[in-house]
Amino acid sequence: MTVQELAGAAAYRPTPPPAWKPLTDPAPLLPDPEPYRVLGTDAAAGVDPDLLLRLYAELVRGRRYNAQATALTKQGRLAVYPSSTGQEACEVAAALVLEERDWLFPSYRDTLAAVARGLDPVEALTLLRGDRHTGYDPREHRIAPLCTPLATQLPHAVGLAHAARLKGDDVVALAMVGDGGTSEGDFHEALNFAAVWRAPVVFLVQNNGFAISVPLAKQTAAPSLAHKAVGYGMPGRLVDGNDAAAMHQVLAEAVARARSGEGPTLVEALTYRMDAHTNADDATRYRGDDEVEAWRAHDPILLLERELTGRGLLDEEGAGTVREAAERMAADLRDQMNADPPLDPMDLFSHVYEEPTGQLREQEARLRDELEAEHGPHGSETEEAR
Amino acid sequence: MTTTVAATAGERTGRAVQATMAQALGRALRDAMAEDPAVHVLGEDVGTLGGVFRVTDGLAKEFGDDRCTDTPLAEAGILGAAVGMAMYGLRPVVEMQFDAFAYPAFEQLVSHVAKMRNRTMGAMPLPITVRIPYGGGIGGVEHHSDSSEAYYMATAGLHVVTPATVEDAYGLLRASIASDDPVVFLEPKRLYWAKAAWSPEAPAAVEPIGRAVVRRPGSSATLITYGPSLPVCLEAAEAATAEGWDLEVVDLRSLVPFDDETVAASVRRTGRAVVVHESPGFAGPGGEIAARITERCFHHLEAPVLRVAGFDIPYPPPMQERHHLPGVDRVLDAVARLQWEAES
């Protein structure tokens, strides 16, 4: 049969391939161009006063915690502290929107979120103190280990949330990452997995303007980090990260959405890191005082205080009570961090495998011999850090 | 801690059939999934297709998409999600499609999978099995034939296991899935279709991780090997009988933990040792193994411990790989050098 005959045959009705159709309508996924705000707007009147007061107490306590931890680095009591001063509204809201059964996946800057979730302030500093790594049982608190590699904890949050859903458990995972972390491959893979699996996850990006010294403009060419959500098929929300009420509302909505089986949400909180990246960093090399001062006028505590005093929910006495509680926490933290923790060097081998390998047993014996030579037969049991 | 896996009564015929390593691996996955609902298989193409090597064939059909899951194509995401699943109490078995495709997941493996038990002072072990088809000899194009075991061996917190027989494929994979520690389970690609008499219906021994085995007893020298190089060494040992050499062949089965006792006992008996593997020799497993033998058996050695390994080159294209892979002749040459040095 010739081509002409084939083409002319009545039976030949070529079916065109189906037209390309997007899987998801992008419009409802797009973030609003302006960050969502509550404080100072009409919406603030609708917020439960008790919630506002609770947020306020946590912000003040959090600010004090940041200051105390930074001071501890100067005394050599902490190896390093990545401060979240200026970002307390993000930290506190992330902790408060979760139920006890939910999971928090913090980055190394999110000590405060772990404390606001109820973790002991000293335990929360174990990693940064340098005695142990995680220092708490993640299952007990449902807080994953503070994650030092960037964005690698995000796929963990997805896997955990997915596993919980497969088991029929009503659990949400909230994972925190910085603006710099959104450039990492794990960020993209986590968002994609979460969307495809409709996993009950909330991704919270704290865009504090800088990845150590690199400003956002050198990090991304996207209109906003929240816009990245659309490409994965999840909604992106842009929110004022210094507005504690707005943060709480947006995150609570995202958590509710996840819990009801509608899948993940990407929340970008616009905020600012008032301190340097860590105590080891010099922020004056990459940003000017004017910029810092401008953000000082938009301080999360200031914004909430203004709302509370304006509505007569907070007076000087009430604020004093909150500050005193924060001082007590700081004094307690100072006291507990004054002594070196007791450490057993033999622990180095205790948790590499369930059963140590033969090779590790040999090394364990060698260290025991060294310690005994140094301190006598019981040296290994009572050895303390110097 | 040797345990046995009971087969269902109806299947218990005990009759050995010809089975491939791929079938034994698939059977191990199936039995583990049937026994423990926490066992989940995930990876690229593991569901409908049954994996590019068909190891997971039928699992999605039998256990559903939630237990045997086709994931998006992203190795870091797959292993990262498995970490979270394990944190919530599941026992994920991850399939990395090919050796070199596992590299994007390296950070998850090294920074999280290997360290979680240690970071959390034992509070959060991660029972994850990472199955990686590895090695050459199947005519794969680049990035499909790497022997990456040295990278995993160098990472504390991981077990590194590689079967060389159909029986071990089943037994070691069951043990790996049952382990509360993460296991990198390296599957020798070119042995996937090698058949052996094996009885999947009869109770199969689950081999504890960490024990080497003498596959062929001998007295002249010891060949120490694992995975894809085991058949090469057994063939070399047979050929060596023509020269009057009686070679012992040790199959390591587990690179981490390393069975110093079995290896040292054999070398003390024979006085000579050759380590054989197809991954590059420089900074490869053979260097570590030779050093361990020298430390333990120096006074028993009649000759230096030799290594027969792949060349220190990126894995060559298929038409050249036969020059790279250590074959019987190269093993016999090394054995000859041992004898010569002993005589001199």
Describe what this molecule looks like in 3D.
Chain A is 43% helix and 8% strand. Chain A has 386 residues and is α/β, with parallel strands linked by helices. In chain A, strands 1-2-3-7-6 form a five-stranded parallel sheet, sandwiched between helices. Chain A has a two-stranded antiparallel sheet with strand order 4-5. In chain A, helix 2 runs antiparallel to helix 12 (300-310). The longest helix of chain A has 26 residues, at 49-74. The radius of gyration of chain A is 25 Å and the shape is globular. In chain A, 45% of the residues are buried. Chain B is an alpha/beta fold and 344 residues long. Chain B contains twelve helices and 16 strands. Chain B has a seven-stranded mixed sheet with strand order 4-3-5-6-8-7-14, sandwiched between helices. In chain B, strands 11-13-12-15-16 form a five-stranded mixed sheet, with helices on both faces. A two-stranded antiparallel ribbon of chain B has the order 1-10. In chain B, helix 3 (75-87) runs parallel beside helix 4 and helix 9 crosses helix 10. The longest helix of chain B has 16 residues, at 328-343. The radius of gyration of chain B is 20 Å and the shape is globular. The relative contact order of chain B is 0.12. At the A-B interface, helix 6, helix 7 and helix 8 of A face helix 3, helix 4 and helix 5 of B.
Which terms would index this structure?
heterodimer; A: 386 residues; alpha/beta; five-stranded parallel β-sheet; two-stranded antiparallel ribbon; globular; disordered C terminus; B: 344 residues; seven-stranded mixed β-sheet; five-stranded mixed β-sheet; 12 helices; 34% helix; disordered N terminus
